[in-house]
Design brief:
about 450 residues; mainly beta; Immunoglobulin-like; Pectate Lyase C-like; 2 domains; 19-stranded parallel sheet; 28 strands; about 5% helix
C-alpha cells in the first residue's frame, strides 16, 4: 500500500479533510480576458491585424464528415467565417485523419462544448488571417501533424491543448509534430497553449536545405505564456526566421527546450525552465548555428544551455514592432499553470478525484512506508516510492499542474503557497493526497 509521512499537526487536517470527497472542476478563465499580443497584431502585407472570421457567418460541425465537407467549401474562399467544432470528433470509420484547408482567407476555428479532435489533424495552407482557439487536438499519428500552418500570413493560435502519449512503447515516429509552422508562415502569435506528452512538439521550418532559406526567413512568430511539459524535443525548433519567446513555462523536458539553427534568431525573455535537459541551444544540430539572445530566464534543476552566438543588438523596435508586457519570471509558472489551455466555455467536463477516506487514527499507520515529505513545506516535496506508475499534481481548483518525471520524484519548488492534490497510480489503484506549500 502507498503510505505517507505527516507531522502531527497535519494528521488532524487529513482526518477532517478526507471524511468527504471533492470534485475538481477542470476549466480555464474565459478567452475574452486574453487579448492578442505579438506579431499577429502587426499591420503588414496588406493585413492590418489578425481578425480571423470575425463578422462573418458561423458554421457548427459535430462529426468528421461535416468537418471534411466544410473544409472543401473554404478552398478559394475569402469570405469571413467562424467554424465551431462542438464536442469530440475522432477518426472512427474514416480513411483520412488530415483535414486540409487551403487557398483562402478569413477564418476562425473555435472549440465549443469541449471541442476536441482525436486523431484528426488540421493542415492550413496558403491562407491569410486565421485564428484557432479553445480546441483540444491529440494523438494524431504519423505522418500527419496535429496542426500545420503552411504559408499562412497572420495567424493567432491561442488557448488550445495539444498532446499525445509519451512513454514506453512510443517511438520517435509513432506521432509526428504536435504543431508545425512552415513554408514562410509569418505574423503568427502562439499564446496560452498547453503542449504535453510528445516527442516532436513545435517545429518552425521543416528543412535545412538552403533552397528554403528565402521562404523560411519570413518567419515572424511570437510565442508567449505557453506550458510545455513532459516532452522530448522541439520546444520549439527554429530554422532561418525570427521568434520572440517570453513568459513560457517548460517543465520536464527530456531533450531540449529551444533549438535555434540555420542562422535563425530568437529573443528569449523571462521564461521558466524546470527539469529541462538543455534549455536553449544554437548548435544542437549540424549546419550553421543560430543566434539566441536570452535574458531574465529562470533555470531550476536544469542542464546548461549551449549558446554559441547571441547578436542581442539585432533586437530593436524595428524587429519587435509591437507593444508587450513582460511578467516577472517568478510569477510565470503559477500564471501559466492556471490560465493556459482551454477556455471556460461552460461545457468542460467535471472530473472527480476522490480523496482517501480516513475514519480512524489507526488508519494513519498505513501511511508510513512510501512518503511525500516534508508536508507542509516551504521548499519542495519529495516522494519515496516503489513501482509507482504515474504521479500527477493538481491545483485544488482542478487544473493539472504537472505529470512528474518518475526518475526525479520531487515537485513544488516553483509553486505558490497553497493546497495541492497529489494523485498516485500503482497497479490499477489510485490514491490522492492533499499537500500544503507555505
Amino acid at each position: 500500500m502507498l503510505t505517507f509521512y505527516h507531522n502531527s499537526k497535519f494528521y488532524l487536517s487529513l482526518i477532517l479533510g478526507f471524511i468527504f470527497q471533492i470534485s475538481l472542476v477542470f476549466g480555464q478563465n474565459p478567452c475574452s480576458n486574453y487579448p492578442m499580443v505579438g506579431f499577429a497584431t502587426v499591420n503588414a502585407e496588406g493585413i492590418s491585424t489578425t481578425t480571423g472570421g470575425a463578422g462573418g457567418t458561423t458554421v457548427t460541425v459535430t462529426n468528421i464528415n461535416q468537418l471534411q465537407a466544410w473544409s472543401l467549401t473554404r478552398e478559394n474562399n475569402t469570405s469571413a467565417q467562424i467554424l465551431y467544432i462542438s464536442g469530440k470528433i475522432s477518426t472512427a470509420d474514416v480513411a483520412s485523419s488530415l483535414i486540409t484547408i487551403k487557398n483562402g482567407a478569413n477564418i476562425s476555428i473555435i472549440g465549443i462544448n469541449g471541442g476536441e479532435l482525436q486523431g484528426v489533424g488540421l493542415n492550413i495552407r496558403d491562407y491569410n488571417n486565421v485564428i484557432v482557439r479553445n480546441l483540444k487536438i491529440h494523438e494524431v499519428v504519423y505522418p500527419n501533424d496535429g496542426l500545420t500552418l503552411d504559408n499562412v500570413n497572420h495567424s493567432w493560435v491561442d488557448h488550445n491543448e495539444f498532446y499525445s502519449i509519451n512513454g514506453p512503447g512510443i517511438g520517435v515516429d509513432t506521432y509526428d509534430g504536435l504543431f508545425d509552422i512552415k513554408k514562410g508562415s509569418r505574423y503568427v502569435t502562439v499564446s496560452w497553449n498547453v503542449f504535453h506528452d510528445h516527442k516532436k512538439v513545435l517545429l518552425i521550418g521543416h528543412t535545412d536545405n538552403v533552397s528554403a532559406q528565402a521562404e523560411d526567413s519570413q518567419f515572424k512568430i511570437t510565442i508567449h505564456h505557453n506550458y510545455f511539459y513532459n516532452n522530448d524535443g522541439r520546444n520549439p525548433s527554429l530554422r532561418f526566421g525570427l521568434v520572440h519567446m517570453y513568459n513560457n513555462y517548460f517543465k520536464i523536458i527530456y531533450d531540449y527546450g529551444m533549438a535555434v539553427r540555420q542562422g535563425a534568431r530568437a529573443l528569449i525573455e523571462n521564461n521558466v525552465y524546470a527539469d529541462v535537459k538543455t534549455p536553449i541551444a544554437t548548435d544542437k544540430f549540424d549546419g550553421p548555428a543560430g543566434f539566441a539572445c536570452e535574458s531574465g530566464n529562470i533555470y531550476s534543476n536544469s542542464g546548461s544551455s549551449s549558446i554559441t552566438q547571441t547578436a542581442c543588438s539585432f533586437w530593436t523596435n524595428t524587429t519587435i514592432p509591437y507593444s508587450y508586457t513582460l511578467d516577472v519570471a517568478s510569477t510565470v509558472a503559477p500564471t501559466v499553470i492556471k490560465d493556459a489551455g482551454l477556455c471556460n466555455n461552460n461545457a468542460n467536463p467535471t472530473r472527480t478525484l476522490p480523496l482517501d477516506i480516513i475514519t480512524a487514527i489507526e488508519n494513519i499507520n498505513n501511511y508510513t512506508l512510501s512518503k511525500v515529505y516534508p508536508n507542509p513545506t516551504k521548499t519542495e516535496f519529495n516522494i519515496n516510492y516503489s513501482d509507482i506508475e504515474r504521479v500527477s499534481i493538481y491545483a485544488i481548483s482542478g487544473e493539472i499542474i504537472e505529470l512528474l518525471n518518475l526518475s526525479q520524484m520531487r515537485f513544488g519548488s516553483d509553486y505558490l503557497p497553497g493546497v495541492y492534490v497529489v494523485k498516485i497510480e500503482k497497479s490499477g489503484s489510485v490514491q490522492t493526497l492533499k499537500v500544503v506549500k507555505h
